[in-house]
Records
---
Amino acid sequence: NAGVTQTPKFQVLKTGQSMTLQCAQDMNHNSMYWYRQDPGMGLRLIYYSASEGTTDKGEVPNGYNVSRLNKREFSLRLESAAPSQTSVYFCASQGEQGANYNEQFFGPGTRLTVL
Amino acid sequence: GDSVTQMEGPVTLSEEAFLTINCTYTATGYPSLFWYVQYPGEGLQLLLKATKADDKGSNKGFEATYRKETTSFHLEKGSVQVSDSAVYFCALSDRGGSEKLVFGKGTKLTVNP
């Protein structure tokens, strides 16, 4: 039971390059989330998916796209990276019942630098 | 909308000192309340939670009590250790609302030996 996994762990991009951050969970959760974490800003929600086939914008969606490929996987794409997107990106999934109701489980993060 | 306000820090304590990190919230429904901890270089992990008024969550010597009358969920520990050095996030999930988590901005704790 791996929980939430993210790849890659580290990435350096040049301005204008594109990349996709991968996230997968093995807990059979419906809801999944992408956050970015910047110093002094806490966690900010980029996009979320309440179920397979649905996605919604969060607080800071500009410059990003997402795909909920299936129930396990939720990817985040930067089409044209900008230095302002230098950040640590976290994926999370959310429990829906029992002891884990509304608890979010986080991946280890992707540390992205855009030059 | 829903919001969480926590003391900004950073907080620096000596080992065995008493810790309090304040957290207050605003919610339209009946929130569940959470404290998450983030150790250096890692993702967030749940520390404790409470789902209704007057519930006390506890884990690893940390405690927090859901106070509806003061809309607060303050985190406390009687004797901190160097290994408690981390960033602590207060969060809520509003069961009458969207059920997404709303996070505070985090409080960095450093414990010196």
---
Amino acid sequence: GAVVSQHPSWVICKSGTSVKIECRSLDFQATTMFWYRQFPKQSLMLMATSNEGSKATYEQGVEKDKFLINHASLTLSTLTVTSAHPEDSSFYICSVGTSGSSYEQYFGPGTRLTVT
Amino acid sequence: DAKTTQPPSMDCAEGRAANLPCNHSTISGNEYVYWYRQIHSQGPQYIIHGLKNNETNEMASLIITEDRKSSTLILPHATLRDTAVYYCIVRVGNTGNQFYFGTGTSLTVIP
């Protein structure tokens, strides 16, 4: 299956600053990537679908101006949390979607964001 | 929104089979059932998926009822490393292949 990496694995930032998280598909040409957020002891929540070369599609209730997604190549999607606040502290996970009847999503290891 | 319901937690003795149920009574005819698991503070790991037939791979077996309204994931010989949260997901294939995770089942394998 596809190997997905995320950078950084954890980050601490001050309130009001912006943080960029990278998601890389190391061995698969990913036209579609997904971004999830997970709060402690909760399930994964889909934030947005990232499409290579076009604008991301955000889920209802997710602020597109706060969570900027860029998918400029088939191997890289980035999520920028702008003007971060403590309530944005969470575990952010990306995934790569394959295609066809054997469709799968391969997940990255996640990025732990703490906003102080 | 998640289209599945699962029991919040289960225990299983090491070496025994773990049977994890999932209800997906509103599943459509062309929607697949996927199982993933998440070990604490890691990304989810793919286990298995199926449409209507039972499936088996090196990790697990997936049993889907004939009416497709429920399924069971079977880990044939549970080990301590199988302790994780297991998610049953119905893929919304016609609208972009998104996964909407439910609350999952926290499986604890007991020595």
---
Amino acid sequence: EADIYQTPRYLVIGTGKKITLECSQTMGHDKMYWYQQDPGMELHLIHYSYGVNSTEKGDLSSESTVSRIRTEHFPLTLESARPSHTSQYLCASSGQTGRGYGYTFGSGTRLTVV
Amino acid sequence: KNQVEQSPQSLIILEGKNCTLQCNYTVSPFSNLRWYKQDTGRGPVSLTIMTFSENTKSNGRYTATLDADTKQSSLHITASQLSDSASYICVVSDRGSTLGRLYFGRGTQLTVWP
């Protein structure tokens, strides 16, 4: 059962539009992450956060920005979408759970920029 | 350079057959190794997690093995089902789950035919 939620699941948008991908988790995890994944390729970390008001860029350079105003919420924003931003975006969180230390992914947002 | 290599890249088997997926890594220092199942268009779901001292871990029809000396892991799937069709991703963490980062393989795309 997913305790981390991403919306929308699919998004098709025109070039130049501003978009925000939503990610929320109900596990109380301090750490949250955004990954980008192209078909058949590995996940690449683009942003992470270790807590409220803490955000860092990941290994893969991205034109997107993130914010962490609340523990449970970690939205990703693209100010001006371009076709090169077409990809799958996965949100994840990590922390202690009743079953030990967990690392949980959301279902992803498939973004297509036309 | 910390890397995770998986083989084969893709695999087709008949329903009911067994299969074994391989993962070799060069991540150091090693903390833990996870296997994830990722259905098309979905986020990865954890199957197993093994630390340095664990040689094998089972989760239903999935059995993972780890040889920390040779830095190799395998995921064995028994009596495959159509629903096993997915990408299986090997993920290695360095240092510790609370501080370490994750290194992702590109996955093995498994297709189970009836």
---
Amino acid sequence: EIVLTQSPGTLSLFPGEGATLSCRASESVTSSYVAWYQHKPGQAPRLLIYGAFSRPTGIPDRFSGSGSGTDFTLTISRLEPEDFAVYYCQQYGSSPLTFGGGTKVEIK
Amino acid sequence: QVHLVQSGAEVKKPGSSVRVSCKAPGGTFNTYGISWVRQAPGQRLEWMGGIMPLYRTTHYSPKFQGRVTITADDSTTTAYLELSGLRSEDTAVYYCARSFLGAFLGKLSLGWFDPWGQGTLVTVSS
């Protein structure tokens, strides 16, 4: 199975700063079939990005995805207070579908 | 806005089985699949498997094959997860999620998840 490794484990940032989250796959992900989710305690995860860079309706444009092959990135251009959460990447180009270990974005 | 509504928390004995339900809006099963994902305390999200009701097809993670059964009732647009042989390591929050379908594996398969249910806590304890 494809193992996804996210880094860093924790990002400590001030509101208004930018955040760059990395997701590295143990082998190439077919056609960049990678999604990103935001997860807050006690809530359901929320889809932010699919197909490596496509944003669903309703997701603010401060969230952007990029990458291909084995390296993918989620960028948050300017952190809003509601953006502090855990972020997971997921691949769906190979079975079983797998998730990364998460990056926690916390307020500094 | 689409909502998936899951059944309530469960407490189970080791060795027993649990069944969790996920009610989806009407019409969901005509276009989408339903996947089940769990998160044990301090662990990453883990895909268990999913179903494509329109095609009567299920896919399971090898880790859970033989212990998990995913079904769907078209008449009530409700999906079910049944996990047998429960052990303490199965204590987790279990989520259902609508899964977009596409030729992601070179054949019709489950893709990304949106939206997710509210989660169901399953506690396995003697």
